[in-house]
Amino acid sequence: MPRTRKESFIFTMIMCFGMVSVMSVYNLWINGGLAEFKWSEFLIGSGIAYVIAFCLDIFVVATFAKKIAFKLPINKEKPIQIILAISSCMVIGMVFGMSLFGVIKEVGLTNDFFKIYSFALLKNLIVALPLQLFIMGPIVRKIFMKIYY
Fold it and tell me: What is the C-alpha to C-alpha distance for residues 110 and 113, in angstroms, rounded to an integer?
């Protein structure tokens, strides 16, 4: 996995791209947005979400996720346990942040904000966690390994 800052930067770029792409389509689908789907709006919205997700990942979530993951009772000599712990913590942090972004973008700070945000958190977490652990994580790791090793 990434060993240098440059490798970590590239890995994060690829992972964010994959997760934002799939989660954007998922959120359009569950919110009825596929009926009025327009590529231009999707690409602009996903591009903005990508930049926000990338910055959130690099500057906020990664640091805390790694600290929390290494405090969990895992065998730190088994790479798969480290990967699963960090990935899980990353997903939870990113879902909190990106759901906040999505709810503010779509409905703003209304009286129902906490209700809508809580529901968005749940809907996004139940898809993002398995997506990351079983699909996107392995795909991105394979791509990364082809680039660097």
Answer: 5
Q: What separation, in Å, do the N-terminal and C-terminal C-alpha atoms of the chain show?
A: 9
Tokens of 105: 């973008």
Alpha carbon distance 16, 115 (integer Å): 27
In 10 A of CB 142, how many CB atoms? Answer: 10
Round to whole Å and give the CA distance between 117 and 22: 20
Token pair 């990106």: residue: 98
Q: What is the pLDDT of residues 25-34, one digit of tens each?
A: 999 999 888 8
**Residue 62: partners with Cβ closer than 8 Å, 6 or more residues away:** 12, 90
pTM over the 0.90 mark? yes
